[in-house]
Write a structure and sequence with these properties.
heterodimer; A: about 60 residues; mainly alpha; 3 helices; B: about 750 residues; alpha+beta; 6-stranded antiparallel β-sheet; 6-stranded mixed β-sheet; 26 strands; elongated
């Protein structure tokens, strides 16, 4: 049973990792709009590196 | 005279959005970053992926636009332009696509709301993660873990419980504190009482080596309550706060006569004073209250009076701000401008009414508070009792009562049922501002309908056409040159009739307020208004080279679904009335057609009169659209603004229908009533549950495992009951979405 003393902290650490990931995505505004992304996936991608950059910049402002 | 042409539709549209470039306006509505200037628009009519694609394409169409992103959930588009760009170009493009944009005011509240939402979600996430892990540990504890492992598990549970109580549960402390300070009873007080008592006793037990710890139940409770609150908040916010819209009944720029320079100058509205003269072109809004000094035209007063027929004005007649000039240029001497106009006063009194209206709480909530407080007092008494007896045992019984009975089900009942209903309604195009409005809707007894635009289409349509087919093309050619409502209606009708090439108009003349003439293919056509019937219709005579060749009748038709909805509403034992500003004849005709008894209808009612009428009844529901209904919508217990309403009535109303017509009104009332009965059902379930569980707890028969099973079970029952609703409710939702 002593394996539990390694596994339990590991499991908790893993959980913490996901919690941190959630916190980051939450504060970056990913959950502000839950509807549009599901529609936007239907749109054709336009590969434009410049445009992509703009979007990430926008996210910073909204934080 | 500055280069202001007689405004055609295209130019008119551009003028319409020019206010977006005004520096003072930008100050309030936009914000600046290094990349450019930003503005949020509420975009009317977006609903699908294609709408997203189309609106976001504007970034490619308009050069100045650096970024545009649409949020379908609340129909808000965020736009960024370069420093030299203009928002009016963006708005115009959106308008051309068929989505009407409304700028949204940027204030602190808006940013605050966003931050609050994110923080609440974060609290929810933390509570969920911790509760889940605590439960994993609890399962092995209940399963029989003992000795050193059990001890460590309990301490780890405490560690996981710390963020729940110090971070996630903070909103409960806050609102409990607020209600304590204002000496009011809220459901949060017993919730906080239960959480705090549970935490303290559990920690004491943990230190003393007692195995009665409740970290699992308590963290699950916090998680559950937070999630319903988050859900309710989100659905409520999707109904959008219309109060952040500005209304633009009157143009911000007016053409003022400058006597010294003998020209018309463009000035801002607030620079006008009494005695100034302004010029108003056809298809423009009259910006001020005043008197006509030059010109002869007709005005569309539907906004102010609700009359479906236009009103003719000549020199000396009084005109009011918010009416639309139809035929010919007018020169108006200003008597009142800004908030002193009749329109302005209506707006001010409407705002007063709205600020007076406090959000009410739902009945079940009010009762729950007392019930739950009784439980708190009971467990408090047990604690005091425990001082004099064996301390630990009674304290634990008190704790069991606090945890097992109080907060969970009662705190869940209303937010759960209401958030589900509000969310489903929003998906069906019915936006309800808050839960209290649903409760008021369920208790409605008297229903008032506006006529023009609500029961009827609110626009003229060709209902009778008696013209030789070969002339249709020529008539279409002439009528499409005019922006008069009659011409627009005929153009729309003829577009579907005429195939082939539309001939060139060689000569055109609008007869002031009386029709239009033109030369097509060498023949001289005259279209004149024959007579204004007292009822809804207008008759047009068509002359070719002076000979009568045909006639057309145009009228504002009753919407096809109005009659059915009226009948359905009658079956709910509601008292139906028409409350209209229009003449007796038109009101009677519509009342007869939809099946409302004319005797109880009120006609020729000014906006102020409408308010008085509504005031004299109890449990009122007003359904309307124009600015003339705004005060009545605010005065009524529930106001429903129908589609294509003025922003003004959107502000005043508690409910907004995204689809035109009153189709959803009946279903909405049914759903409101059924939601209340679901709440009641859940309420009685909770009472029974609490009495039984409380009894067990009092007898000392409840241990942590029992609590951990019982509590989620009760919550689950409430949840399932809310989701299933009632069969009438399900049918009504189906109808709304159909």
């Amino acid at each position: 049973m002593s394996i539990i003393f390694i596994l339990l902290p590991l499991a908790l650490l893993l959980g913490l990792g996901f919690l941190v990931a959630f916190a980051r995505s939450c504060s970056s505004g990913q959950y502000d709009d839950l509807e549009t992304p599901s529609h936007r996936i239907l749109l054709e991608d336009e590969y434009e590196p410049k445009k992509f950059k703009r979007v990430t910049q926008e996210r910073k402002i909204h934080v | 005279m500055p280069s202001v042409r007689k405004s055609g539709p295209a130019l008119g549209a551009r003028e319409e959005f020019r206010f977006l470039d005004d520096p003072e306006f930008l100050e309030q509505y936009s914000w600046q970053t290094q990349e450019g200037r930003w503005m949020d628009f509420y975009v009317e009519g977006v609903h699908c992926a294609a709408c997203v694609w189309l609106t976001e394409k504007i970034a490619d169409i308009v050069d100045d636009v650096g970024f545009i992103r649409l949020n379908l959930g609340n129909s808000v588009a965020t736009v960024r332009i370069h420093d030299q760009g203009s928002f009016s170009a963006v708005a115009l493009e959106l308008q051309k696509m068929g989505y009407r944009p409304h700028p949204i005011k940027q204030d602190e509240q808006r940013g605050l709301q966003k931050r609050e939402n994110r923080l609440l979600l974060m609290r929810l996430g933390v509570a969920g993660a911790c509760a889940g892990n605590i439960m994993l540990l609890a399962v092995s504890l209940y399963g029989g873990a003992n000795g050193g492992i059990a001890d460590r598990f309990r301490w780890i549970s405490l560690g996981l419980y710390v963020p729940v109580i110090f971070f996630s549960a903070v909103p409960f402390y806050k609102s409990a504190w607020i209600s304590l300070r204002s000496k009011e009873l809220s459901i949060d007080i017993p919730v906080v009482f239960g959480i705090l008592l549970g935490s303290i006793v559990s920690v004491i037990n943990l230190i003393q080596g007692d195995d009665r710890i409740y970290f699992d139940s308590l963290s699950a409770l916090v998680f559950l309550l937070l999630s319903t609150r988050y859900l309710l908040k989100r659905t409520q916010q999707s109904a959008l706060d219309f109060s952040r819209f500005l209304h633009f009944l009157t143009p911000m720029w007016v053409k003022k006569w400058n006597p010294s320079g003998q020209i018309y100058e463009e000035v801002r509205m607030d620079q006008l004073s009494a005695g100034d003269r302004v010029q108003v072109f056809p298809n423009e809004c009259v910006p001020v209250d005043g008197r006509v000094v030059k010109g002869f035209s007709s005005l569309d007063c539907a906004l102010l009076s609700g009359e479906s027929q236009s009103e003719r004005v000549a020199v000396g007649d009084r005109v009011f701000a918010g009416t639309l000039n139809l035929d010919a240029p007018l020169e108006i001497e200003v008597t009142q401008s800004g908030v002193n106009t009749r329109m302005g006063r209506i707006l001010v009194s409407m705002e007063k009414l709205l600020t007076k209206k406090a959000a009410a709480t739902v009945f079940a909530d009010r009762v729950s508070r007392y019930f739950v407080s009784a439980v708190v007092i009971l467990s408090g008494a047990l604690i005091i009792f425990s001082f004099y007896n064996s301390w630990g045992d009674y304290l634990n019984r008190a704790l069991a009562i606090a945890i097992v009975t109080c907060p969970c089900t009662f705190a869940l009942i209303t937010p759960l049922a209401f958030s589900l209903t509000l969310g489903k309604l929003a998906r069906g195009g019915v936006l309800v501002k808050g839960p209290d409005i649903l409760e008021k809707l369920a208790g409605v007894k008297a229903v008032f309908f506006d006529k023009t635009g609500t029961l009827t289409f609110g626009a003229l349509q060709v209902t009778h056409w008696e013209v030789p087919d070969e002339l249709s093309a020529a008539i279409l050619a002439i009528e499409s040159c005019s922006v008069h409502p009659i011409a627009k209606a005929m153009t729309q009708y003829l577009r579907n009739q005429v195939t082939g090439v539309i001939p060139q108009v060689e000569e055109l003349k609008e007869k002031m307020g009386n029709g239009i003439c033109g030369r097509v293919g060498g023949s001289w056509y005259e279209l004149t208004r024959a007579r204004d019937a007292t009822s809804l219709s207008t008759e047009i005579s068509i002359l070719k080279d002076g000979l009568l060749v045909g006639r057309a009748v145009l009228s504002d038709q009753v919407r096809p679904e109005s009659q059915k909805v009226v009948q359905l509403l009658k079956s709910l034992n509601l008292n139906l009335r028409i409350l209209s500003g229009d003449h007796r004849g038109s009101v009677k005709q519509v009342a007869d057609q939809v099946g409302i008894e004319f005797g109880s209808c009120i006609f020729e009612a000014s906006p102020e009169k409408k308010n008085e009428v509504i005031k004299s009844y109890e449990n009122t529901l007003m359904v309307g659209d124009g600015a003339n209904d705004a005060i009545a919508l605010a005065q009524a217990d529930v106001g429903i603004a129908v589609h294509s309403s003025m922003e003004l009535s959107l502000q005043a109303a508690g409910v907004f229908l995204k689809t035109p017509g009153i189709r959803s009104v009946y279903h909405l009332v049914v759903i409101a009533r059924e939601t209340l009965s679901v709440v009641q059902r859940n309420f009685w379930f909770s009472v029974v549950y609490n009495v039984i569980a409380g009894g067990f707890a009092l007898a000392g028969k409840i241990d942590p495992l029992f609590a951990a099973v019982l509590m989620p079970m009760s919550a689950l029952t409430v949840l399932l009951s809310s989701i299933t609703g009632t069969s009438r409710m399900r049918t009504a939702f189906k109808e709304i979405n159909a």
